[in-house]
Specification:
The complex is a heterodimer of chains A (238) and B (209). Helices cover 79% and strands 0% of the residues of chain A. Chain A is an all-alpha fold. Chain A has one domain. Chain B is of the alpha/beta class and 209 residues long. Chain B has a single domain, classed as P-loop containing nucleotide triphosphate hydrolases (Rossmann fold). Chain B contains six helices and nine strands, in the order E-E-E-H-E-E-H-E-H-H-H-E-H-E-E. In chain B, the strands form two sheets. A five-stranded parallel beta sheet of chain B has the order 6-7-8-3-9, sandwiched between helices. Chain B is globular, with a radius of gyration of 17 Å. The relative contact order of chain B is 0.22. The interface between A and B is large, with 36 and 46 residues.
Chain lengths: 238, 209
């Protein structure tokens, strides 16, 4: 038997934030890339839901333009919700979460990395696709750009709030349904200000106020959600 | 370096499993935890590793009382349980690298490959972890255990699913770890192949509160 490979210990590791965030982000992105079919399913779901409304309701342009922003936001929320139950459940089942909680690194930072990966794989593509899909609702260029910008600001909030729900319902039977019940009401303000921004631009008012409120919500969620998630995960592991 | 348990009691939900456990594990010594199935061995180990809260009593590491998830305990302990934290989508080597990094350590690619050679997983290096057998998954855990070189090992039935070679490897690793001044707490159904001077045994679940 050859002697064990000795390793220098990284003494700065305890409670480290940046490497923990990077580790979780890189690992989750790699895992998502290795199972890209699942990502495709989420995006396709989003595209189909958005496309169903013009087909099922009316071809009338003004009506569609009124309907569009709300439909795109609700579809973005549902697409984000689709992958949320798996956010912590897979790591919980295979023991990774146990090792994350027992790691010398900061658990909130690890959780933040996972949430960032969730947003990059669901929220970001949804926001990028939005202007294209918005064309079906006869929205003008300024409204389309406002929609995409609003989604860029708002979808991280959906990921952050959703992660709290996912952590709280971890290990529960039928947690997916409960997760939706917990998260959907919390996302109402995001939907109101996000869809409201597009309406404001179409009415010629400018989206500044709505964007400020979305950005404020994002800052609050960014500071609070990782801590809340870490606390909930530790309870789930106990 | 000492791990002390003072009047520990553990429960799972409303079911009390054990109570009044006091012991200490010093550098270079191992503690074997025995007991019937469901007697609370895993619960005790999780409490000692700082992953669960005891229902009463205290865990002390080097004399300081440790709350669950205390950073000092997280720095010192490696917990090796029934779950191996392997990702099916990643290769064996990627899994090992990822787990070593998560424990706050750095390993050169050569060291990682050598660690897998040591546990006879040379051919499985580039294979996705989903094709590994139970015993091979355990062996990845052993490679991680040895690479991390943490002072305290908490092992939950480490010999499960290992073949004779694997069990011999585990015994050799344990020997090496204790000789280097490490400590270990091991839940086991088989007696440990260690001299009595290096090993104490505690039975869980006999003295119910």
């Amino acid at each position: 038997m050859t002697p064990a490979a000795a390793l220098p210990l990284d003494r700065a590791a305890t409670g480290a934030v940046a490497p923990a965030f990077g580790w979780a982000l890189a690992r989750d992105l790699k895992l998502a890339f290795r199972s890209r079919a699942e990502l495709g399913v989420q995006l396709l779901f989003y595209v189909i839901v958005v496309t169903l409304f013009p087909l099922a309701t009316t071809p009338e342009r003004t009506l569609l333009a009124n309907l569009g922003p709300g439909v795109l936001w609700v579809a973005a929320l549902l697409a984000s919700l689709l992958s949320l139950p798996r956010l912590f459940a897979v790591d919980f089942a295979d023991g990774t979460l146990e090792q994350m909680a027992g790691s010398p690194w900061s658990l909130p930072a690890l959780v933040s990395g996972k949430i960032a990966a969730h947003w990059l794989t669901t929220g970001l593509p949804v926001a990028v696709l939005a202007p294209l899909l918005g064309l079906q609702y006869a929205l003008e260029a300024p409204a389309l750009w406002t929609l995409a910008a609003g989604l860029l600001l708002g979808t991280p909030i959906l990921s952050l709030l959703g992660a709290i729900g996912a952590a709280l319902t971890l290990g529960l039977r039928g947690g997916g349904g409960l997760l939706a019940l917990l998260v959907l009401p919390l996302c109402v303000p995001v939907l109101i200000f996000g869809a409201g921004a597009v309406d404001a631009v179409r009415a010629g008012l400018g989206a500044g106020a709505n964007f400020s409120l979305l950005a404020a919500g994002l800052l609050i969620a960014l500071t609070g959600a990782p801590l809340a998630c870490a606390a909930a995960l530790r309870i789930a592991l106990d | 370096m000492t791990l002390e348990a003072h009047d520990l009691a553990g429960a799972r939900g409303y079911a009390k499993l054990f109570g009044g456990l006091s012991f200490h594990v010093d550098a270079g010594r191992a503690l074997a935890v025995t007991g019937a199935n469901g007697s609370g061995k895993t619960t005790l180990l999780r409490i000692l590793a700082g992953l669960s809260a005891p229902s009463s009593g205290a865990v002390r590491w080097n004399g300081d009382a440790m709350a669950p998830f205390d950073p000092r305990l997280r720095e010192a302990v490696v917990f090796h349980g029934h779950l191996h934290a392997l990702k099916d989508e990643l290769t064996t080597l990627e899994n090992l690298a990822s787990l070593v990094a998560l424990a706050g350590m750095r390993a050169a690619p050569d060291d990682l490959a050598r660690a897998l050679d040591d546990v006879a997983l040379t051919r499985q290096r580039q294979l996705p972890a989903r094709v590994l057998s139970q015993g091979q998954r355990r062996r990845v855990g052993l490679a991680r255990l040895r690479l991390l070189q943490k002072p305290l090992w908490v092992l939950d039935e480490p010999a499960t699913a290992l073949d004779a070679d694997g069990a011999a490897l585990l015994a050799a690793m344990l020997d090496e770890h204790l000789a280097a001044g490490g400590a270990a707490v091991i839940a086991t159904h088989q007696p440990l192949a260690l001299p009595p001077a290096r090993c104490a045994t505690i039975e869980v679940g006999t003295a119910r509160p």
